[in-house]
Design a protein that fits this description.
Layout: H1 2-5, E1 7-15, E2 18-23, E3 27-32, E4 46-52, E5 55-61, H2 62-65, E6 76-81, E7 86-91, E8 94-101, E9 106-107, E10 117-123, E11 126-131, H3 133-143
Parallel strand pairs: 2-11, 5-7
Antiparallel strand pairs: 1-2, 1-8, 3-6, 4-5, 6-7, 9-10, 10-11
């Protein structure tokens, strides 16, 4: 039972050739990808906005936030709860929810400002790159 206390649920998804994971407790919902309405003058990582059940949700490119080329079309939008609003992250295929041991998480040595990547972990013979898009976007907003 005590081993269960040191585990967290992470939502795993693909971007490019890598598998990333975002904490489930920040996830509001997962949507099939729908092209957002462009916003003139928005930052380059903002794809646009969507009306999700009466709420306007800003959609951000997961590829752009991670510095990846958009070699494949987005399949899903992960809607995250931030301090101020809901933010959607366009990603490839959402694959599974993984139960990860917190003591095995390896923080990255030097994190670039604005990067959502903060740690890695080996899980089921695969390297997962752990992200925190909500924190990253909050940091970017505070720099403007």
């Amino acid at each position: 039972m005590s081993e269960q206390l040191h585990k967290e649920q992470w939502l795993c998804f693909q971007l490019g050739a890598e598998t990333y994971a975002q904490q489930v407790r920040q996830v509001h919902e997962i949507l099939d990808y729908t092209s957002p309405v462009p916003v003139p003058g928005a930052q380059s990582f903002v794809e646009g906005v969507l009306n999700v059940r009466g709420e306007i949700v800003t959609i951000v490119s997961g590829h752009h936030m991670l510095g990846l080329e958009e070699s494949q079309a987005s399949v899903h939008i992960i809607v995250l709860e931030t301090k101020n609003s809901l933010i959607g992250i366009s990603v490839g295929e959402v694959s599974t929810i993984a139960l990860l041991k917190t003591e095995q998480i390896m923080p990255v040595n030097s994190r670039q400002a604005g990067s959502p990547v903060w740690a890695t972990i080996k899980h089921d013979e695969q390297l997962l790159i752990l992200t925190d898009f909500a924190r990253s976007l909050t940091e970017m907003d505070s720099y403007e």
